[in-house]
């Protein structure tokens, strides 16, 4: 039975990956700094499904090495900012090497950074630097590129107070449900075809111009408050936005992501990329959750307990 270790296993994507690991019958070690008010319920839920918790500092390489010892796969889903990845993910890699982990999955889970040109953004450049380090050290790795995450990129009032769009409304990009990210991640992590490769998930394509028609289709008569940040503003903030609180994704870094996704269309490789495999071709038996299926769920759009009476099921 393969054994996985995951750092960040109670975050949005990490929790789904953790559940899939356990559902597939694999062993799981949740590696974290310990229980907090925000993660305790998820840790306990995963432990109830069979996960084992290991608590240690995320900068203590010997302790992390012990946590990863005997694991086939180590997955990093730490807070995705350039500063955090640059300062902290190296400790996880060093521990994975010392523990002789079979495969390392770094904190990607977004745009295809392997195919991006240098200078596309602080976060993307930091991820590319980390990819080069893994290659130089000879660490077997797999990069997961799901495009944008449905929870954040599809229009909803659970995470936001208004529906906000950015840049060019007709710029198309792929979106993926976290459950599908989990299924592809677990399969790819154990698949020899995916060693030192990226895995692109691009089953659902959409553009921001589709947002309001989709909402009107399923919630006729409801008025959604919207605002648009035009391309010129995105480009300006991507170059000159503030860099305050680098560990919490500063303004400049956020808009560099918006620039890549909604202006430059860099979410996936523009041309076939030799080191990127297609998830649908790799795993044709996976049926991916579609955009309409998600938008038609009023709890996704409005949030639990906040669905207007007219749309309650």
From TrEMBL:
Question: Pfam families from the entry?
Answer: NmrA
Signal peptide span per the entry?
A: none
Domain NmrA-like per the UniProt entry, residue ranges: 4-232
Q: Entry's Gene3D superfamilies?
A: NAD(P)-binding Rossmann-like Domain, UDP-galactose 4-epimerase, domain 1
User: What SUPFAM superfamilies does its record include?
Assistant: NAD(P)-binding Rossmann-fold domains
- The entry's protein name is NmrA-like domain-containing protein
What species does this protein belong to? Chlamydomonas euryale
């Amino acid at each position: 039975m393969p054994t996985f270790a995951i750092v960040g296993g109670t975050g949005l994507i990490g929790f789904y990956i953790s559940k899939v690991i356990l559902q597939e019958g694999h062993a799981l070690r949740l590696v974290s700094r310990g229980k907090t008010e925000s993660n305790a319920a998820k840790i306990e839920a995963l432990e109830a499904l069979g996960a084992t918790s290991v608590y240690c500092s995320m900068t203590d390489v010997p302790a992390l090495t012990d946590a990863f010892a005997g694991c086939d796969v180590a997955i990093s889903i730490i807070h995705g900012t350039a500063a955090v990845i640059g300062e902290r993910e190296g400790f996880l890699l060093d521990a994975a090497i010392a523990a002789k982990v079979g495969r390392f999955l770094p904190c990607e889970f977004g745009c295809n950074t392997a195919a991006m040109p240098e200078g596309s953004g602080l976060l993307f450049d930091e991820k590319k630097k980390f990819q080069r380090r893994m290659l130089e050290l000879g660490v077997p790795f797999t990069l997961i590129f799901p495009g944008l995450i449905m929870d954040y990129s599809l229009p909803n009032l659970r995470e936001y107070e208004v529906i906000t769009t950015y840049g060019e409304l007709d710029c198309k990009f792929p979106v993926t449900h976290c459950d599908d990210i989990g299924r592809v991640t677990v399969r790819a992590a154990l698949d020899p075809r995916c060693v030192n490769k990226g895995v692109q998930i691009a089953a659902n394509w959409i553009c921001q111009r589709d947002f309001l028609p989709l909402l009107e289709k399923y919630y006729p008569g409801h008025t959604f408050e919207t605002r648009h940040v035009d391309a010129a503003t995105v480009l300006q903030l991507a170059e000159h936005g503030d860099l305050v609180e680098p560990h919490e994704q500063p303004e400049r870094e956020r808009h560099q992501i918006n620039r890549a996704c909604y202006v430059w269309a860099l979410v996936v490789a523009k041309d076939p990329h030799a080191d990127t495999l297609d998830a649908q071709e790799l795993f044709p038996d996976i049926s991916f959750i579609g955009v309409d299926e998600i938008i038609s769920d009023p709890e996704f759009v409005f949030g639990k307990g906040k669905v207007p009476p007219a749309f309650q099921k």
